[in-house]
Amino acid sequence: xxxxxxNQHIISVDQFTTEMIDSLFRLSQKMEPIVQNRKGPKxxxxxxxxxxxxxxxxxxxxxxxxAFYYLGGLxxxxxxxxxxxxxxxxxxxxxxxxxxxxxxxxxxxxPEIGSACExxxxxxxxxxNAGDGHGEHPTQALLDLYTIFLEKxxxxxxxxxxVGDLRFGRTVHSLARLLCLQKGIRFKFVAPQVVQMPEDxxxxxxxxxxxxxxxxxxxxxxKSSDIxxxxxxxxxxxxxxxxxxxxxxxxxxxxxxxxSLCKKDVSILHPxxxxxxxxxxxxxxxxxxxxxxxxxxxxVRMALFLLVLGRESDIQ
Length: 316
Hints:
Layout: H1 18-28, H2 31-37, E1 48-53, H3 59-70, E2 74-79, H4 92-99, E3 105-110, H5 115-122, E4 127-132, H6 138-152, E5 159-163, H7 170-179, E6 186-190, H8 199-207, E7 211-215, H9 218-222, E8 227-230, H10 241-245, H11 255-261, E9 267-269, H12 290-308
Parallel strand pairs: 1-2, 1-3, 3-4, 5-6, 5-8, 6-7, 8-9
Helix pairs in contact: 1-12, 3-12, 4-5, 6-7, 6-12
C-alpha cells in the first residue's frame, strides 16, 4: 500500500515505501539538535496527544510523550486497563469515539491483535499503533531500521540475525517486513521451535526473494552477522511456566562471546526491556547499540508526529 504521511493512521509497516522512509529519516536527523539544545521551533504548540497505553510499557509510553513535549505539544495519558473505562466494560470503540474529541492524535498500545486497526476505522484523528498484542509495532521497527542505518551507513546487503522470542515478539515481525524494502538482506532467525518466527512471515520473506536461515545455533549465526537483534523470551506470553523456564536462559550474549565470535563492527540491538539475554558486561562495548537505539526512537517519533500532523515544513 502506498501512502503519504499527512493525517494518516500509522498501523502497519506494510504502509511504508522506501521514499517515505527516506523522508522520515531525513527529518529524524534534524530532531537531535532540538532535543540536545532545547531550542528551535515548537510546531506542535497547541496540539494534544492522547497517549493511550492499555498494556504495561514504560519506554514506549515515555518516548511518545517526550517526543510530543519536545515539539511543544501537550500529552494526556492513560496507563493500564485498570485505570481506564475499559475496566468498567466499555468497548475500545466507544473509548476511541470519546477520546478523539480530546486530542489531535492518538498513540495506542493494546494487548489485542487488530486493536489499532479497529481504532483507526472509527477515529477521525490519526491513530499511531504503539503495539497491538503480538501483532505489530511499526514505530519500533522504524526506529530499529533508523538505528541500523546510523550504525552501518547503509540498509542494503546486510546479514541480520534475530534471536530470542520470534513467535510472540511483535518488534521482529515488523522489522523483518520493513527490511524487505531493502536490497540483499540475509535473514537468520535463531530460536527454539516453540518461539521460532511464524511460518507465514518466513514464507512472505522468501517469496520476496530474500535468503532466510532458520536455526537454533546462535554461536554459528553470530560469526557472519552485521546486526544481532536480541529479544527477551516473554514470560507473559506463555500459558505454562515450565514452557518458559525450559528456554529462558538458552541465548545469552556476553562480552566474551562477541569478542571471540563476531565481526569487530557488529552492532547489537535490543528493543528493551531486557532480562538476562544480554549480559551487562556488553554495555561498555562499542558494539552495544541498544541504548543508542532507544534514544533514536525519540527522534523518529518526533519526525513521525510532524509528518502525520503536517508540520514538517516548520523545521528548517
